[in-house]
Amino acid sequence: MSDPPDLARLVAQWASKADNDFRNAEYTLTLQEDCPFDTVCFHAQQCAEKYLKALLLQAGSEPPRTHV
Question: How much of the chain is helix, strand and coil, in % rounded to 5?
Answer without folding.
Answer: 75, 0, 25
